[in-house]
Amino acid sequence: MLEFAQAEHTDRETLFVEVILPLAIAKNYTYRVPYELNDSVAIGKRAVVQFGKSKLYTAIIAGIGKQAPEKYEAKYLVEILDDKPVVTHEQLHFWYWLADYYMCNVGEVMSAALPSALKLASETKIMLNKDFPVDRSTLHDKEFLIVEALDIQPELTVSDIVKLLGQKQVMPILKLLFEKNVINISEEVSERYKPRKRTFITLNPFYNDPDNRRELFGILEKKAPKQADAVLAYIKLSRQQKTISKNELIEESGAGAASIKTLIEKEVFIPEEKNVSRLYFEEEEAINNFELSEQQQEALKSVSDQFAEKDVVLLHGVTSSGKTQIYIRLIEEMIQTGRQVLYLLPEIALTTHIIERLRVYFGANIGVYHSRFNDNERVEVWQKVLNNEYKVVLGARSSVFLPFNDLGLIIVDEEHETSYKQFDPAPRYNARDAAIFLANMHGGKVLLGSATPSFESYYNARTHKYGFTELSERFGGVEMPLVEIVSIAEETKKKTIQSHFTSVLIADIQQALANKEQVILFQNRRGYAPVLMCKMCAYTPKCINCDVSLTFHKSSGKLHCHYCGYKEDSPTICPACGSTHLEYKGFGTEKVEDELSLILPDARIARMDLDTTRSRNSLQTILNNLEEKKIDILVGTQMVAKGLDFADVTVIGIINADSLLKFPDYRANERSFQMLAQVSGRAGRRGKQGKVVIQTYDPGHRVIKQVIENDYKDLYFTEMTERKSFKYPPFYRLINLDIKHKDPEVLYHQAIYLAKELRKHFGDERVIGPQAPLVSRIRNFYIQSILLKFEKDAISINKAKTVIRDTITQFQTTKLSKGSIVQPDVDPY
């Protein structure tokens, strides 16, 4: 980044600005400032610029100076969009660090960081915002023209609007329309954060008068006895509690929803819809007045004491040990000092009860930021953080990009989660590691929390780089769940297994249902069957774009690719040999749900995976139904392992643990332990000891034994010995290079050449490959991977990255590189 002085300027001096464009280009571009805009330019403001022959982009001003570029003639910038900067100096510093550390371009960081509405470009799509009808008489002529054009054609690009109005300066007009909520920009409007609503009932004040009430009962007892029961039930409940929900009234009276509806229509009852907490607590006072246990108080004191010396502290607390309550106390302390707090969560959509809990405490001081928000909402949160209106921000990994002024504390909950790692597109950053740099930049602290910490964090704690605190007991003295291992092979041999369910699991499910308790079943694969195979010739349908077999989904009746989204009809005749003997191999969540409904026809079964949670509000509906006990058994993928905290879930079934354990990855055992421990932790969280049934073909597997004994330390020490021997993190740093090309033969020669060039600098031991990854073709691009391993002490990782960048650049200047894409991934796994 060029350091331009932000000079005081007179009207006639010529200024130049260096801008960051939202593109994967290696250098920033410099533009000339028109004299009339001299007073408007400032670092962090958005400028509209032309790049290429005719394309317009919104760029961020990164520097101001008086020196014209030497190698090219600077074009004039078109427009300044902001009255004050939308990106802070600290953010720009953070962007440059991310680009440097994760070996990408700062323009790619800008693309990831800014909400789409803040980075308009020629190809950005504009749509009418149907959620906010607007009075068109209030629009100016050009605004009206745009809205009228969108009536005829529902989607226009910025280029279309430039042609429509016959002028280049359309961005300010679009900005005003966006601020008025007339248009939506670029992003498809996705699900908003929806608070949970519940209908509460009050008696019409007219019937508080005893005479009026007697008259009402006289009429109802003769003509509608069920309605009379409902009114009596209301009076009874009102003596015991302040608020009465519609569901409580139905349950207490036995009158049914139709009777309540009729009483509402007669205006006997008055309904009121309110936002309510998803917490187990019945009264908000119970939440506000919670007290920390002795162990929690000790942990809180330990964390606070260690923050005096360490910037990062790891809180290792078993599932349901009350880590969230410690987080709340730390947030309260930080707010009292006037500083901001960022609370990172791996799966924002699954942790709505955390949102509710924090909103009870911090009210309007808390903001929520994640990918399920539409663009209007994201811009609103961005502006409120910039203006210091939010003291606490709760968000997924992208919230590290928000414009914080004074960040005092970052809490990274479930810090081990792979969801914190961005895999595609660049920057391929890990939000946990980025958060540590971000906090350090603001002079703040970081608390990492997990029941199953990542080995890197645990290693850093053991070597005293991080502070360390432990919570070894569940809150309220609740015991850890009982874990029972069941051999699938043994039950198959005895013929006691039904479909994919062992006799032990079926018996435990039936017992839970008899006790009016709930069950969660975990199968880490969605769809109905992973493979369709011909019994005669072993033909298996494959994706036309990717090197993977297609998965059958019974709900659509089609074969799906989970990498590129390709679908095709499921064949009834083998296209290879003409046989009609086609069978499904393996099973996913859809098949588990289907076959369980045959075994337990009276059970209310629901499924939670990527397929059932795509539509608007579908996820919230499932969670609400589970909490309100409208679901007996929930079948799901790894989504069910994160953030679910329900009182009556007492049995957890892991249908096939082997799908996690037998995976060709050096982290397989660590990830398996984390997943099994986290899923197990959903059981028995409210005073009842839960039970976990793990079905496996390998009951003697070391990791399963460690899960039973909850022995994280044994897992850690065993795995670390192997990692040291085979040169893996945390002892070595990894950088993976994926080379992609549409021709596999050309790709092979390109990858061999690049690996050979890297070996000249780093030697054979540090450069592994090239080799094809497990999935060697995605979206018609073939892939070869080169893995580089660098010992932490013997080589400067910054120098190594410089050499890798130079080698890639040199490769890209050769004719051999034509048509290739090279993607570096730092800390890839």
Q: How are the SSEs placed, and which strands pair?
A:
Blueprint: E1 15-20, E2 29-33, E3 46-51, E4 55-65, E5 79-80, H1 89-101, H2 106-113, E6 125-128, H3 141-152, E7 155-157, H4 158-165, H5 171-179, E8 183-185, E9 197-203, H6 210-223, H7 225-238, H8 246-253, H9 257-265, E10 269-275, H10 284-288, H11 294-307, E11 312-317, H12 323-336, E12 340-344, H13 352-362, E13 366-369, H14 375-386, E14 392-395, E15 407-413, H15 431-442, E16 445-450, H16 455-462, E17 467-471, E18 482-487, H17 488-494, H18 503-514, E19 518-522, E20 531-534, E21 551-553, E22 558-560, E23 567-569, E24 582-585, H19 589-599, E25 605-608, H20 618-627, E26 633-636, E27 649-654, H21 658-661, H22 668-680, E28 691-696, H23 702-708, H24 712-725, E29 732-741, H25 744-762, E30 767-771, E31 777-778, E32 781-791, H26 797-812, E33 821-826
Helix pairs in contact: 1-2, 6-7, 7-8, 11-12, 22-23, 25-26
Question: Quick summary of this structure?
Answer:
The chain contains 26 helices and 33 strands. With 829 residues, the protein is of the alpha/beta class.
Structural key phrases:
DNA-binding, GIY-YIG endonuclease, six-stranded parallel beta sheet, seven-stranded parallel beta sheet, 829 residues, 26 helices, disordered N terminus, ATP hydrolysis activity, DNA binding, EC 5.6.2.4, alpha/beta
